[in-house]
Fold this sequence. Notes:
Layout: H1 7-36, H2 42-48, H3 51-69, H4 78-93, H5 95-100, H6 104-132, H7 138-166, H8 170-189, H9 206-230, H10 235-263, H11 269-297, H12 299-325, H13 331-361, H14 369-398, H15 402-418, H16 431-436
Transmembrane segments: 12-31, 43-66, 78-98, 104-129, 141-158, 170-190, 235-253, 273-295, 302-321, 333-354, 375-395, 401-421
Protein name: Major facilitator superfamily permease
Domain Major facilitator superfamily (MFS) profile: 9-425
Amino acid sequence: xxxxxxxxxxxxxxxxxxxxxxxxxxxxxxxxxxxxxxxxxxxxxxxxxxxxxxxxxxxxxxxxxxxxxxxxxxxxxxxxxxxxxxxxxxxxxxxxxxxxxxxxxxxxxxxxxxxxxxxxxxxxxxxxxxxxxxxxxxxxxxxxxxxxxxxxxxxxxxxxxxxxxxxxxxxxxxxxxxxxxxxxxxxxxxxxxxxxxxxxxxxxxxxxxxxxxxxxxxxxxxxxxxxxxxxxxxxxxxxxxxxxxxxxxxxxxxxxxxxxxxxxxxxxxxxxxxxxxxxxxxxxxxxxxxxxxxxxxxxxxxxxxxxxxxxxxxxxxxxxxxxxxxxxxxxxxxxxxxxxxxxxxxxxxxxxxxxxxxxxxxxxxxxxxxxxxxxxxxxxxxxxxxxxxxxxxxxxxxxxxxxxxxxxxxxxxxxxxxxxxxxxxxxxxxxxxxxxxxxxxx
Length: 442
């Protein structure tokens, strides 16, 4: 691995996250509204919205380990991007076509296939970051690629609003094209380390490799999970528990906030998506500073501060939303207040999200980075499996106003869990570290 930290290379890698974020932002903002056309309850919509996470929790550990073993002239991660990204883009673009035909079976088939192909390449893209970044700079690198992810979400929420108001299908067509172009840039400009671009001398059939990796990856996942729960030192358990809890909170908001905006506040779903866009804007603006803050004062302290900011934002938003729903405050004023709050919430989310993956991967060895990346996403995707149905049940029983209460509770629980983490932190930068952060343009 090149020990010199390269801004250029990390920003180019960030286009992969840019494209993925466009797809998920549009998917979470508008697909629940589409599904409401079929007279489904919020609980059932929540079940549909976890399909991506079911694929992720089953496939990401496997694909992370499989890509660790892959050796081709393109590298070990790139083949998965070349297969998954174009296929996912096609089926994503077909979602509004399925809606136009008012056929639930067609809609479900399109959603399932789109989610399957997104899972094919997501873990390999994510694993590229630690592949090409020295350990002590991973918070900074994760800040940069999360900046690019935030930029993608920003395009989706802000540009998507304008396109959606013209025709509800346009955000899906444009989003699919942008995701394809973004991942093409990654394939063209990111060169994996030379050792991963040399075909293995050991001749193994594809079927044998798949079986071997299946056994080893899920065996590795089993062993890693055993380490999580059996180890006397519980830092890994508590950081993964915290990740699980805060993703339950965040995914419930991401899935149902546009519905909350439409059915509770009485504003257009595209305006609700715009407000989520301000959250993404705050995340994007603060993701790079969040990485440097994590490197300076420590990842744990930065995550704690970020969660505290988000909890305060949620409590204020809950109060304002309740007042608006009861007619005590004008809805247009509450929308403006939400705009400022969500921008601030995005700052907090940047501090949380940017510093969490580096904490997990720094608790293992270089050889197991792909497996631990899969472990990280096992817990985050497990959270996303629980979040939509649980928050959907709350909404069905208590109304859309319960959404913000539900999210706040889980952010608070995550804040408590983080306090028990003792490893995976790097505090302070030496003068030599600062020097090595000078961009390497090679």
